[in-house]
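Recall that a protein's primary structure is simply its ordered list of amino acids. Everything else, from secondary elements to tertiary packing, is in principle encoded there. The following example makes that idea concrete.
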Amino acid sequence: MMQHIELKINLEFPGKNGSFMVHIWGKGPSPLETTDPVEIRKADIQILESYYLKNFNKHIILLNQVHGNTVINADTLSFLNDALCSDGDALITSNKENVLMVRTADCIPVLIFSEQYEIWSAVHAGWRGLQKKIVSQAVKNLITKTADSGLVKDLKFIIGPYIYPDSYEVGKEVYENFSPHHSYSKENKSEKKFLNLGAILTEELTALDIEKKQILSIQEDSFKNKNFYSHRNGESGRNINIIFYKKT
């Protein structure tokens, strides 16, 4: 039985010769009956290709996400299995046939594009990825690919659904990796604290000289909004976040 997914967010941003498309799918009624990670990723891709993107004739690229800071240039991947079997948490491309995908269930999906260079990226940023500056690594790779350090001023960042701080209680082994102002306690009754992933990401973007006008946050809490999968809610499904370029 295939996993059923439902389109929750559909955004379109103008480019020079087309549009950047951002789609985010959330919870559907039928979970996939397998625990094999490669088979799950293949199923997600098959669903998108068969039902949602069949008119676009695109190649969907999805990595084996490992909560690290490895960025993969999708333009160097020859076959689908190269991506499915490659460890990484961010993709970049300028190939207009490529659809970049990240799967999330409380971690932050960050979808990035440049209108000027018609280049884009998809980033999976959990607390480990944020600790390792995964978004900064993606931006650095985009700069390298375009050979233009001024690229940062043309970038746009779409922040998808993720778990908000009042739902994200963690132990000291997690919150001590970040500045004290990124976490807080409630009534000082526990050694655990509530971690603000969004604030950590915002601080990282600010350090990259990214301005507020370059950022669009969907402002959905994956834990509280039952339209989306949440690992903290004990759900095994994943939200699907994609970005691609549609030619006019």
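The chain has six helices and 14 strands. The two ends are 36 Å apart (CA to CA).
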